[in-house]
Amino acid sequence: LGPRLGFGTLVLYLAEGAAGLPVFAGGSAGAAVLAGPTAGYLFSFPLAAGLVGWLAVRGWDRRPLWTALAMLAGEIVIFSLGLAWLGGWLALAGKFGGTTTLLGMGLLPFMPGEALKVLLAMGLLPSAWKLVGAFRQR
Fold this sequence. Notes:
Shape: globular
Helix content: over 70%
Mean pLDDT: 92
Low-confidence stretches: none
Strand content: under 5%
Radius of gyration: 17 Å
Largest sheet: none
């Protein structure tokens, strides 16, 4: 989608959820979700989409290694903001058990799925661009 459409699409996603559509994890919705423990992750999605879209426009989605680096850049944005918010939220709730607890709740459980998504993107995006190139030459 590129940076603008990617960013805008995820802003609309947040607006849908805030308006009450059950689009967030587990079918949750409402403005309260945007102030809860996962809000940092949610608000990071448009930023990550904008960044990855910006990198893709510059060709980072054309080769497997560069695709992985673009995806990892997006993951860094998501987990940095998500963990920062979650840590603050847990501290305010009196439930912060230190970095080990924070990483155990907000990062480590998601790593296998994130690794799988990066691997899929590494294989699918460059391959899709090759197909597009082949069709354009016809």
